[in-house]
Amino acid sequence: MKIETQCLHEGYIPGNGGARVVPIYQSTTYKFDSTEHVKGLFDLTEEGHFYSRLSNPTVEAVEKKIAAMEGGVGALMTSSGQAASFIALLNILKCGDHFVSAASIYGGTLNLFSVTMKRMGIEVTYVDGDATEEEIQAAIKENTRALFGETLSNPTMSVFDIEKFARIAHKNQIPLIVDNTFATPVLCRPIEFGADIVTHSTTKYMDGHAVSVGGVIVDSGNFDWTNGKFPEFTQPDESYHGVVYTRDFGKSAYIVKARVQMMRDLGCTPSPQTAFYVNLGLETLPMRIKTHCENAKKAAEYLLAHDKVEWVNYPALEGDKYKTLAEKYLPQGCSGVIAFSVKGGREGGIKFIDSLKLISLQVHVADIRSCVLHPASSTHRQLSDEQLKNAGITPGLIRLSVGCENIEDIISDIEQALSKV
To answer: Over 70: is that where the pLDDT of 368 sits?
Structure first.
């Protein structure tokens, strides 16, 4: 099926007389006819649901849909995008390990890597996403176990060269994890370019209506976990009666371990109601993302031509630094997010934002309604000046998330706000 059809039909097939829409299984637990069956569920020799911290029929349907959309062998929904990033890495990292990340990533993710995971004894090295392969290779250590980046960085809108990082990762026998939140699988499927694991904050375009916080991890099934660097996949897991993930689950070893070990112990569980909302969002995602892209490009072109705007980052623009990479990885569009700066730096940006009427100031992005934020004083406020610089965030940077309103109304609001600067 094409992705527009997958968004409507993957993951759930109603039976004769069954509900057409994915039902909400609002239950924490399930009934069984025998202790033998329950034993098999806990031994992972039987398929099925036994407690909703690990799996739930509503959540499972949406996981299957997203896995199909990304071209993976399986998916695990989480309680937030932050939880998805955390579990995706912790599933393969332990105290004393190291990983490499692109420097230009979401501020919350950067804090997770630099503060919380550091306290756990896991070290991260940041590299410029535009660095040469030799420069990135120099950041790899003996204990490096993963590479990480965002397809479209939040908020600077740089394009991640997936194939370049995949070459480096696979040369070193480690996986590449790509956060595909802004692009969504409608615009880019990182697995097709060599990514091994894909994550999303479903809170953003997948939901699309600002009604539920969630995340998801997708396993490509392509990485060889038996290469000697990941004994946790090839040695018995005594917490599951000696299960060996690569032996017992083959290509699904990574995502099964993430569910039955990481989710079991951390409990970053999505609710069935959240999964239901995400599913509704996915059904209209292809139509919405098309409008987001079309509106954003027109808004970016307007901003670029305005004499009160210093610069605009939007990869679909002619002359943009990432235009060539965007044509390769995102030929159908670059989402609805624009990074730009008005004259007057921080003060000019604040004046612009406070003068908007239709476009709302909110700590959110990728919503069906247009919204705006000043990252340096909000989502990236905890970063040092050096970290902000490394992430490409200037004091006056504005993140504009262009929604699905009529583009003339969006530009009219931008125009009147700029007149106040």
So the answer is: yes
Contact 394, 342 (CB under 8 A): no
In angstroms, the Cα distances linking 110 to 117, 198, 205, 224, 321 are 10, 17, 21, 27, 23
- Cα 205 to Cα 403: distance, rounded to the nearest angstrom: 10
Give the span between the Cα atoms of 400 and 242, in whole angstroms: 50
- CB within 8 A of 132, min separation 6: which ones? none
What CA–CA distance (Å, rounded) separates 100 from 103? Answer: 9
Dist CA 279 CA 8 (whole Å): 9
> DSSP secondary-structure letter at 357?
S
pLDDT of residue 62: 98
Amino acid present at 250? G
CA atoms within 13 A on the CB side of 286: 10
Query: So what's the pLDDT on residue 381?
Result: 67
Location of structure tokens 């290509």: 251
In Å, how far from its chain's centre is CA 204? 9
> What are 214-239's pLDDT values in tens digits?
999 999 999 999 999 999 999 999 99
Query: Quick one: which of 124, 103, 131, 220 has its CA closest to 170?
Result: 220
What's the CA gap between 215 and 225, in Å, rounded?
Answer: 24
pTM: 0.96
C-alpha radius of gyration, the chain, whole number: 22
Q: Which residues contact 331 (CB under 8 A, 6 or more apart)?
A: none
Name the nearest CA neighbour of 366 among 206, 146, 229, 233: 206
Measured distance CA(330)–CA(20) in Å, rounded: 33
Residue 136's pLDDT is 98
Share of the chain above pLDDT 70, in %: 97
| Measured distance CA(147)–CA(125) in Å, rounded | 10
Please tell me whether the peptide bond between 57 and the residue prior to it is cis, using omega within 30 degrees of 0.
Answer: no
- 391 in Cβ contact with 110 (< 8 Å): yes
Q: Got the DSSP string for 99-163? A: EEEESSS-HHHHHIIIIIHHHTT-EEEEE-TTS-HHHHHTT--TTEEEEEEESB-TTT-PBP-HH
* Number of neighbouring beta carbons within 10 Å of residue 37: 12
Tens digit of pLDDT for each residue in 300-354?
999 999 999 999 999 999 999 999 999 999 999 999 999 999 998 888 888 999 9
